[in-house]
Design goal:
The chain is α/β, with parallel strands linked by helices. It is about 45% helix and about 15% strand. Strands 7-4-9 form a three-stranded mixed sheet. The protein has a two-stranded parallel ribbon with strand order 1-6. It has a two-stranded parallel ribbon with strand order 2-5.
């Protein structure tokens, strides 16, 4: 559904540009995003906020096991939402040089297991992981091409570790006050 929505939006913008010369729409297509105000719910939340919630709960409840869907080997690219905001401002300031359609990402991906380990380390949680092979694993890798973005002159500024730590700090503060 996400992919179809992105394609539809890009095609609509392209159509409007062709039909109405007064308009100049351009499309940014971001990779997976995370950050403050994300959905941390264990049932409906996205991957990284869900991991933050799971590890936090395990630490609070002194549990030494957390379950990962599948074998943890699939890879995903995540970008901190503040980086996307920076890219949007850069794109507005350099609109005439911006391609009509462009992916936005960090150019690196990690396995799901890597994300669990990074977040566990941030929480100083020293438990281990169970792998639930009855759950879906998903596509092996999702990494966007950044050729146009690199030529455009923008790159991600916030490291994955700093972005995760900022998100965890927000989550913990919100958790204290009833997320």
């Amino acid at each position: 559904a996400y992919a179809i929505g992105k394609i539809f939006t890009q095609k609509l913008c392209s159509y409007i540009n062709k039909e109405y010369s007064d308009f100049s729409y351009k499309t940014l297509i971001p990779c997976n995003l995370f950050g403050k105000y994300d959905n941390f719910d264990l049932e409906t939340g996205h991957l990284l906020p869900n991991i933050i919630n799971k590890i936090h709960n395990a630490k609070l409840n002194k549990e030494n096991k957390v379950t990962i869907w599948g074998d943890g080997s699939v890879k995903r690219e995540f970008m901190y939402v503040n980086d996307l905001i920076d890219c949007i401002y850069y794109s507005i300031e350099n609109f005439s040089q911006m391609p009509e359609i462009m992916n936005v990402g960090v150019g690196k991906d990690c396995s799901v297991l890597d994300y669990y380990n990074i977040i566990a380390k941030s929480f100083e949680w020293e438990g281990s992981f169970n792998f639930d092979m009855t759950k879906p694993v998903g596509q092996k890798q999702k990494l966007v091409s950044l050729k146009k973005l690199n030529n455009f002159g923008w790159e991600s500024k916030i490291s994955l570790q700093n972005a995760i730590d900022e998100t965890i700090n927000y989550y913990i503060e919100s958790y204290k006050y009833g997320l």
